[in-house]
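User: My instructor asked us to take a sequence, write out its structure as C-alpha cells, and then describe one feature of it. I'm not sure where to start. Here is the sequence I was given:
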Amino acid sequence: MVFTTPLLGALKRRFPGARLTYLVESVAAPVVRYNRDIDELIEVRRPRGWPRLEYDWTLGRQLRRRGFDIALDLHGGPRAAWLTRVSGAPIRIGYDLPWRRWAYTVRVPWTPSLVPPRHSVLNQWDLLRPLGIEAGDPARDPVTMPLDPAAVARVDERCRDAGVPADARLAVLHVSAGNPFRRWPAERFAELAASLANLPQPVHVVITSGPSEADAASRVATLARQLARDDGERIVRCGEFDLSELAALVTRARLYIGGDSGPMHVAATTRTPIVALFGPTLPERSLPWRDPAVPSMAVEAGPLPCRPCHQRTCLPGDFRCLTGITVRQVLDACVTALGGTHA
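Assistant: Let's start with the prediction itself. The C-alpha cells for your sequence are:
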C-alpha cells in the first residue's frame, strides 16, 4: 500500500483534470485516507466464505456503473484482477501474470526474480508507463501517509501518560515483523534499547510491535530495563499502535529502528531518520523511498550465498542473514543517524 502512494501524485500531474478513485480494503485504508491526490476513497470489506462471492459481485456491478475510463491494478492478486476486469474500464492495466492476464487490456511484464534487485516502487511504476508518465524519483515522488489529527492527539496523550517528556529525544524500536525471516533476535533488541537509553545524551525508547507479538515486545522492554538499570523512565511501552498512530508516533521521534516490514515503510512516509535491518531482503528493493536528504540507513550481515531468498525455507537453518547483524552495527548506525557520538 505504501509503495503505491508515489504513483498518485504522478497520475495527477499527467491528468490534472482527472478524478482519481482509490479502492482499498479497510484494514489498509489509513495509509491513503487523507491523501490529497485521491478524490474518492472506496473502502471494501473482505468477507469470508460464500458471503464474499456475493459481496464482490455486488461491488463489481457498482464499479461498472461508475463508467471509469482507466483501471490500474496495483495489487495483482486474484480479487484485484477480477474487480479490474468487471469495472468495464476500456483501458485496464496490470501485470502479465499467469491466470491474471485475461483481466487487462494492457499487460506489463513482470518477473519474480530477486536478482538483479530493483526497488518495489519502480516495479509499481512500470504500470504507469503505458500512460506516458515519466520515471519515478524518490525526492519528487516519496511515499506518503498524511497524518490523522485524532491519531496525533491519541499518541500525545499516551506518551504523556507514560511519562515521556514532550521534548524527549525519542526513538521508536519496532521489534516484530510479519514472518521469522525478518525478526532480529529479541535479546539483541533489548541490548540495543538499553544502549540507546544509556547514551551520553539519553534517548527515550518506545518499544512497539505488531498485535500478535505484544508479549514479545513486553519481554524485550523488561530485559532492556534490567540491562539499562532503568525503572521504566527511559524505556517504555505505550500499548499497541494502529497504522495511523504509528505514523504519528514516528513523526514526533528522532529515530526509527526496525526490520524490513510494513511499519518501516509507514515510518518512511515521515521525515524521521530510519535504521533498517535487512536479513533475507536487500536495501536495493526495500530501502525507504523518500528524499535522500533524510537519513535512511541499512544494516545487513553482508553477502551470503543464500541471500536474497524467497523467505519460504531457511536453507542453512539458522537465519544467519539476521543473526549475523550485531548490536554494535545497529548502535553505530543509530548514533550516526542521531548525529551524535558514543561518548
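For the description part of your assignment, you could build on this observation: The chain has two domains: 2-131, 149-338. Try explaining in your own words what that tells you about the chain.
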